[in-house]
Amino acid sequence: MAESRVPPEISPWPKQTLRGHNIPGSRYTSKEFADQEFENMWTKVWLLLGRESELPNPGDWQREDVGPESILMVRQKDDSVKAFYNICQHRGNPLVSEEKGSVKRFVCRYHSWAFMPDGELNFAPDADDFPGGNPCGKVRLAEIPCETFAGFVWINMDPDCVGLKEYLGPIWDDWSRYDLETWKRYVGKTVTLPCNWKVVLDNFNESYHVPTVHMAATPETKRNRVIGGVNTNYRETRFDLADEGHNRMIMQGGFGVGSTDKEGNIQEPLASLLRQWELDPDDFKGNPEGTRTALQEAKRRLGASRGYTHYDKIPEEQFTDAFHYTLFPNFAVSVWADGFHFLRARPHPTDPEQCIFDNWWYASQPAGETAPVSTMCGDVPRDAEVEHEVFEVGEKSMGKTIDEDIAVFVRQQTGFRSRGFKGVYLSNQESRVSRYHELIDDYIEGRRPLK
Ligand code: FES
Ligand SMILES: [Fe+2]
């Protein structure tokens, strides 16, 4: 008999007071504002940059760009990961132009200076010809603070930054429950979008748009009856703002709405999900709302014995509900019990009206599970090795829901250019949008939430 246990609870985050200021269109179009953001915000925050599992062996490296900066993450002999600016310290030539690779030494293609994976210069031609002395052992790649958490590599371009754990605040404990470091990627898509990066983050900081953009709701629609997998009623949605600047939103898994036919029979995919957890869809005929608690109980009871070992550590709601986080400044993620939907926007190197947008899906790896992984791009075989795809907007689908969001992003950016736009008028349920913009201003004006 299993020990009786108290499931972990979702503790509230502290209340925040919002200043509520105007957000004009120029914040999304001005090069001057983008430069201020880069100098005072992007270079002072922890950024999720890469995945540890992509760097399995010493010498493995991955390059990621953030605005005008290009950054290398490199696996070390002692298994740690270091980050460096992708710049040769001889005369500034970028060291690599590829996305990833593995090296014994990084050899610059200009004059063959060679740097070890730990950043030390190991070879320079004609080393005795330098009036400052032999640069080997003296000159190093410029290192960037780098830490790992949840299987991801994080960097901070501020040499005096606080530690990652302090920066992440309550996110650290929330995410430690899922063993995310063991999860594997099943979708990896990157696209350049013709909009400012904040257009993307604003959108993922509110669920007000969901009925209209994703559920075809109109002014005539009864919004608590629109068809969808989650309950979008803001009165039943939980919003939390952390002191550190990150946001959380929890929407109940609204399995009731739209999950039945006219006679009340449970429809797919809910019917299959119930069977997977030894529940009979016929038992819920006319009572689709009852499936939420029943699924929670079944997963709690059966999960661990089926290899879902992290189920013991997560709260009931996590089995069914949408936990959505936005990590300041550029990372939005929905965390499900077995799926991690990763959305990230990075600034374009020079143009404030473009950004780089990543859409990834990770899934848990329960021992013995063979069912395909369901992602926002459909089912993917569990043993699939998924390649990272990089493309231009419109060339390929990012998944139906995200395509619907992108169509709005592109149009909204054109509105921000108009002299007719007088600035936003936000609802309470969009308070995470206000908070984000206030924080950007705090960074620009030297009032950082964490020193
Ligand atoms: S700039 Fe790299 S070796 Fe000269
Ligand atoms: Fe959306």
Could you walk me through the main structural features you see in this protein, from its secondary elements to its overall organization?
Among the domains are: 46-151, Rieske [2Fe-2S] iron-sulphur domain (Rieske Iron-sulfur Protein), CATH 2.102.10.10; 176-253 and 321-444, Alpha-Beta Complex (Naphthalene 1,2-dioxygenase Alpha Subunit, Chain A, domain 1). Helix 1 (31-40) crosses helix 9. The protein has an 8-stranded mixed sheet with strand order 13-14-15-16-17-18-12-21. It has helices spanning 31-40, 164-168, 170-176, 197-204, 210-215, 270-276, 291-302, 400-416, 431-444; strands spanning 46-51, 60-66, 69-75, 81-85, 100-102, 106-107, 114-115, 121-123, 143-144, 146-149, 152-156, 184-193, 238-241, 247-251, 322-327, 331-335, 339-347, 355-363, 373-375, 378-380, 389-392. By secondary structure, the protein is an alpha+beta fold. Strand 16 (331-335) and strand 17 (339-347) form a beta hairpin. Residues 203, 209-210, 213-214, 405 line the site of fe (ii) ion (FE2).
Layout: helices, strands, pairs:
Layout: H1 31-40, E1 46-51, E2 60-66, E3 69-75, E4 81-85, E5 100-102, E6 106-107, E7 114-115, E8 121-123, E9 143-144, E10 146-149, E11 152-156, H2 164-168, H3 170-176, E12 184-193, H4 197-204, H5 210-215, E13 238-241, E14 247-251, H6 270-276, H7 291-302, E15 322-327, E16 331-335, E17 339-347, E18 355-363, E19 373-375, E20 378-380, E21 389-392, H8 400-416, H9 431-444
Parallel strand pairs: 12-21
Antiparallel strand pairs: 1-11, 2-3, 2-5, 3-4, 4-9, 6-7, 7-8, 10-11, 12-18, 13-14, 14-15, 15-16, 16-17, 17-18, 19-20
Helix pairs in contact: 1-9
The structure holds FE2/S2 (inorganic) cluster and fe (ii) ion.
Residues 203, 209-210, 213-214, 405 line the site of fe (ii) ion.
